[in-house]
Structure formats: structure tokens, C-alpha cells
Write a structure and sequence with these properties.
about 325 residues, mainly beta, Jelly Rolls, 10-stranded antiparallel β-sheet, 8-stranded antiparallel β-sheet, disordered N terminus
């Protein structure tokens, strides 16, 4: 048998290696361990604060399907603290006011912002529904002193927890939000939603005293659901629905007429967590608190599924 030309041998070896090697496969997508299987297909964004972005620990890698990484504003990696909300968790996010008497931009908060919209959040464009869920613990004074006024006795009228911005937001206006806000002179836990960019918002407020729902130093699992097709919202605490009321009795979402009722067909300008203006241009509504396992879903999760998720995380369901 004639010998191969020595100059061709390396080329032949490369070709043979390619033929004999197993076919290339995509790296398996990691599934969030603490999210119930029934919710994973709807999980657009998920932050467990145990996944610093490679090469930049001031960002948190999204464990949902969107890949929307989160900026830890002002505090960076120091905002991750060893205080998990439930047995399988080891870390959480600390947010809060830094200088109550200074109108600066140093509050610890988290978020994503783009003035042209965030394409990875397209699931919330022309959306029928949304859900925000997560663990929260009050760790300090809430609401905080208003650093934007000269009056030392003035306080913000709200405490920001977690929300999705509208497609025309300046960093404050939201499409879906879980927060504490003043309702008729009393601070209440609410779900606040806006179907149309530039349109009116509706608020669903819990009747119970907010401090009984979020006692200092206690981890609490909260959920807010938004059905933009029917104009309805819901609030849940530790897997159970909360009694509440709508602040407005009219039709702020304009869903009474005929047609397909969804949100504006615009990509949200971002996400805000622990306060407004994630682009860090202003301080508003800081939350002196910790947060863990924040989930943003593109449907209104049922009461049974919220209860199931709570039991899944607390080890009551294997």
C-alpha cells in the first residue's frame, strides 16, 4: 500500500478527527432549582442573588429565559448578603437609603434601564398578563426621609419593592409593580399596574395593616398578579390571597370596550427594585430591606400555583 504524501498527513488527520468526533451539542440550559416546574415556561426574569455575572460582580445574572442581567446600583457586590429567605437559599439583596439628608444618588437599589426599551423584556410588550413574586424582609426604617426636600420631617409616600417599567418610563412609571404606597392617608401594600403607556394606573390595596404583613426582620413571600385583559389584580402573602380593594372605581385601564386588551406594544424600559430610577439619576422611594428570589412571569399565575410555589421553596412539597 503506497504511503500518504507527508505534506497531506496533517490535513487528513484533521478531516478524520472531524468525522470520528461526536456531534457538537449545545450546552444544557440550567433550570432554576427553586422554581416550581409548573412556572418555568412563564419565567421571563429570575434573580436569586447567588449568580454574579462573570467578570462583573456588580451585576446579577438572570436565571430566567430572557437573559436580562441586573445592575446592583451604588453598592455593587456588597449588596449581596448571606441571609437566605428560605432553606435552600444562601444569599439575598440588601437595598436601602444611604444619606437621608442629602439629595444625591447613592441609595442602594437595583435595576435595568434603557431609554429605547429593553429588548430582552419583550415578553411584557403587548402582554395579556404579568406576575411579580419574591421574598422581602424589612431591615430598617420605612418609609424613608425624603432626601429631595429641605423639610427634615418630610417622608416619601411609598416604598418601592419590585416592578416592570412602562415603554415610555422615565425610571419611575410602571407597567406592573409591587410596593407600599400611601392610599387615602395610610401606607398599604399594593399591586399597581398600568396597561397603556402614558395612561392611568389602577391600584389594588391590601386591607391589612402593612406592618402586620411585613413585620421587621421577618422574611415574607409576596406575589402580585396583573390580568390586563380583564383589568384585575391580586395580592398574596406566604402563598395565600390577601383581602383588598381597588382604589379607583372607574376604568383606568380602558378594558370596558370591545377589542383585544393588552399592554402597549412597547418593550419596557427596564426593571426597578428597591426604589425608582434604576438609571441612578434621582432618589425616590427607597426600601430599607432585603429581597430574595425575585420572579417576573408573563402570565397571571393562579392562586393555587402561588401557594404551590411557596410550599416548594419552604420545603413543604418535594
Amino acid at each position: 500500500m503506497p504511503k500518504l504524501n507527508r505534506r497531506l498527513t496533517p490535513l487528513v488527520a484533521v478531516l478524520l478527527a472531524g468525522l470520528l468526533a461526536p456531534p457538537a451539542q449545545a450546552a444544557p440550559r440550567l433550570e432554576p432549582r427553586d422554581v416550581h416546574p409548573s412556572l418555568k415556561r412563564s419565567l421571563v426574569v429570575y434573580y436569586d442573588f447567588e449568580h454574579p455575572l462573570a467578570g462583573d460582580p456588580s451585576q446579577e445574572a438572570d436565571q430566567g429565559r430572557s437573559g436580562t442581567h441586573l445592575q446592583l446600583v451604588n453598592g455593587g457586590a456588597a449588596m449581596r448578603v448571606a441571609d437566605g429567605a428560605y432553606p435552600a437559599s444562601g444569599m439575598s439583596l440588601q437595598t436601602g437609603q444611604v444619606n437621608p439628608t442629602v439629595a444625591g444618588n447613592d441609595d442602594w437599589k437595583a435595576g435595568v434601564y434603557s431609554a429605547t426599551g429593553v429588548p430582552s423584556l419583550n415578553a411584557f410588550s403587548a402582554a395579556k398578563a404579568a406576575t411579580i413574586m419574591g421574598w422581602f424582609k424589612m431591615t430598617g426604617e420605612n418609609p424613608s426621609p425624603n432626601s429631595n426636600t429641605a423639610n427634615p420631617n418630610d417622608r416619601y409616600n411609598a416604598v418601592g419593592l419590585a416592578g416592570i417599567l412602562t415603554g415610555d418610563s422615565d425610571g419611575h412609571a410602571v407597567r406592573a409593580l409591587l410596593e407600599l404606597i400611601n392610599v387615602d392617608g395610610e401606607l398599604r401594600l399594593v399591586a399597581l399596574g398600568r396597561r397603556l403607556d402614558g395612561g392611568a394606573s389602577q391600584t389594588f390595596a391590601a386591607r391589612a395593616d402593612w406592618q402586620s404583613l411585613l413585620p421587621p426582620g421577618e422574611w415574607v413571600f409576596l406575589a402580585a398578579t396583573f390580568d390586563f385583559t380583564t383589568g384585575t389584580m391580586g395580592l398574596y402573602r406566604n402563598g395565600r390571597p390577601l383581602d383588598g380593594f381597588y382604589v379607583r372605581s372607574d376604568d383606568p385601564w380602558q378594558v370596558a370596550g370591545p377589542g383585544r386588551h393588552v399592554t402597549s406594544a412597547t418593550d419596557p424600559r427596564g426593571i426597578k427594585i428597591g426604589g425608582s430610577f434604576p438609571q441612578n439619576t434621582r432618589e425616590t422611594n427607597p426600601c430599607n430591606c432585603r429581597m430574595d428570589s425575585l420572579m417576573f412571569l408573563d402570565r397571571a399565575v393562579t392562586a393555587a400555583q402561588i401557594r404551590q410555589q411557596y410550599r416548594w421553596m419552604t420545603g413543604q412539597v418535594s
